[in-house]
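Lab notebook, page 48
Experiment: co-folding of the full assembly
Goal: obtain a model of how the components sit together before planning crosslinking
Operator: M.T.
Materials (sequences as entered):
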Amino acid sequence: MSKVLIVAEHFDGHLNAATARCVSAALALKAQSIDVLVLSDAPDAVAAQAAKLDGVSRVLTIANAANAAPIAQVLAPQIAKAANGYSHVFAPSTTFGKDLLPCVAALLGVAQISDVMAVEGSHVFQRPIYAGNAIITVQAPAAQTVVATIRTASWPAVAAAGNAPVEAITVEATLPTHTRYQGLQAGSSDRPDLQSAAKVISGGRGVGSAENFGIIYKLADKIGAAVGASRAAVDAGYVPNELQVGQTGKIIAPELYVAIGISGAIQHLTGIKDAGTIVAINKDAEAPIFEIADIGLVGDLFKIVPELEQAL
Amino acid sequence: MKILVGYKRVVDYNVRIQVKPDGSGVITDGVKLSANPFDDIALEEALRLREKGVASEVVVVAIGPADLTAHIRNGLAMGANRAIHVVSDQPIEPLAAARVLHKLAEKEKPGLFLLGKQAIDDDANQTGQMLATLWGRPQATFAGKVDIADNVATVTREVDAGLETLEVDLPAVITADLRLNEPRFIKLPDIMKAKSKPIETIAIADLGVDTTAQLRISRHAPPPTRSRGVMVKDVAELVSTLKAKGLL
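Observation: model returned without errors.
Model output:
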């Protein structure tokens, strides 16, 4: 029987939505129990949010001043200790989980499975390779703890109507002091979060400049969408890097994705393949984006986008 | 100080990979192979640190079959001082790669181990983190900016929420993200010079680490294809189509 430990991702007292998606993946295992582990200097608020997630058996907290910032080499030894007795350790495949979980796997001496997109059995999973151009079925040894990151775009968030007990635990682990957290420079945005938004409007190189990106933001605000971008738009300095969608940026699965002035390089398509409906607006009728778009419109974005905003 | 750089050979990022009809793998015969783009960025950063006087020597490290020599010469032509080729005929999982790199770290005692944040073939994003853990040293992954002074690296990391800054004591493991730098092009005279640079070869079995594969890949499948979409002629038609689907 599977006993799953999920490492909670949180920031500033708020549980990240990615954690609720990991619970969905754990439910797919038909797990006997699903525990969420919160490491923090002050875990209570986050633990209370995790306790509400449907399907969660228990929330475990490890309070330690050293856990104030998410430093992988500090958190990993505590998680490896807490993992004793569990068959699976999951974390979301976000920059937090990707940074942290391989350290846990190395401490446990097991291979990690990255970006789990489907569960076929307690130790059998599907994951993408080659920028999502192939899907492999991979089996982990039955006798080992499965350490895996969960591809957030593949799993829905569970509802928050539960009421799991919260338990504080302690672990014996020597924590390193070789890493000092200096702070986060967050992109200021009051728009919906890119990774959990139902609608996303993305701009690419075709938008032409940071100023021109104003029309993308205006259109997004009109329909309550998050804003994304291709690598080309980020590299050109039109928008900050955290808006990048693709193999090396964020992998998203909104209900509606509108790609404007984006040609559709393989690396970008990887990030949007699971979107419900993809709309492409591009002046080049031969652009690869039209091969995967559900609805395509060929034309000048500087004419189409303002028209579209008017029509809504 | 010395910098070690992980330097993997992968299918070129422009190749649209095909899954073999029998599901046993992807077609790599006759396909263009290149350095993993993130490893090129890691190597470029190491070379810049040497040019700034922070590093004295840059060593590229590659794990793979005997025919990896041309790939390794590319790293030398880019500017690395020498190379270590760990010869393995079997594909290596990230944990096994990390164990190999850890052995080399113990032997070479670098001040810094630079890797790419992920290889674009297995997309694992694990090796650097696993190496730091086995080595007992700090890690700074997804690096977008690296400053080194007084045996401390200040690294700006590209995280989901924005840019995070960590200060890590050296030796450390840093993994390169896309925007760390723009790798230089290899010039013809440098290709000639690279021919005389030393490549040390080590059989993977001689390192005394467990590199047995743990994971069994039972099937490769192409991704689900999206059905062919429709083209609309103008904004009015686009809006009505989206409204009909309940998306607006």
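Interpretation: DSSP finds nine helices and 18 strands in chain A.
Next step: discuss with group before ordering constructs.
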